[in-house]
Amino acid sequence: MSYVLLGRTIKNEYLSLAVLGTAFGGAFLATRGGPRRRPSRRRCSRRGRAEEEQFILNFIAEAEKESAVAAPAH
Fold this sequence. Notes:
By secondary structure, the chain is mainly alpha-helical. Helices cover 57% and strands 11% of the residues.
C-alpha cells in the first residue's frame, strides 16, 4: 500500500521510517542539553598581594609562637 503526497507515491515503509526518525531525532535534540559553558578565566588581581603576603607571614609567625609556648621543647 502507498500514499500519494504532493503528486508523488510514497510507500508505507518510508512514511513509518520518517515518523520514527522525526520522533526519536526530536526527542534526542530536545534532551541533549544546552551548550556547555566553559568557566571564564579571571585574571588574578595583583592589588593587595603584598598585604596578603605580609598577613600570611605574620599568621605563620604567630602560629609558631603559640605552638612553641603550648609544647615545650625536649
